[in-house]
Amino acid sequence: MKYNENDFYKKDLIFKGKKIPYYLSPLLEKHGFIHAFFTKNSSEIKLKFISNQFKKNNKNCFNKQIHSNKIIFGSETNENNLLMADGIISDQINQNLWIYTADCMPILVADLKTKIVASLHCGRRGLENNLIKELVKLLKKNGSNRRNLLVAIGPSISSKKYTLDKDLFNEFKKKINESNSFFNNDTHQKIYLLNSENKIELDLKKYAYYQFLKENINPENIDISNKCTHISNNEFHSHRKNKTKKRQWSFISN
Question: Full-prediction pTM beyond 0.85?
Fold first, then answer.
């Protein structure tokens, strides 16, 4: 159950003579799931042009993200009437499930057997609201077995750059209502660090990983990118660093 981040494969999409870099989860790639974690160059291109480079004639599914635990199905999405949610699950063939992030975690999930896929936009508030638990519950309800689920957590902010004051951190602790193992000094599960500026560094990716373990997802089926959107700002939009409203896209296709 040791937490580990790793290198994702980097590739380039060529669009109108311009390179659009993106990253692939080794785990999802190994099992043949079409997906991508894009860099900031993707934010200026319409989704239909990006998706056509991967899989033609798919429906592009996306929503209006609100830092909640609400998850909808691909067939419910409509670009002319965006629903408010932070996750999408495929329920028909030929769906691209899109999310956009600029420090929060883009999380892509795939079922090896049923080929159902899902995408999540998950930050601190998504973790507080048990977004991951809600996803696993809905996937199970729709025929997935936990042992068949693959998870890829894409480029997002690292604990070193995600700091909270003590009041906000204590509010987070109260809301998640977890065991003391995540807050004890002597455990490998610890998800925070008090830095020299008396701020709390909170590890969102690590806590998301443990939330998936708590839902009985095999740790060998969880892939975590080592890219930090704040540190790698030349590649990614970072709201914490630049207060930008721009986002980068990620998607998975069934």
Answer: yes
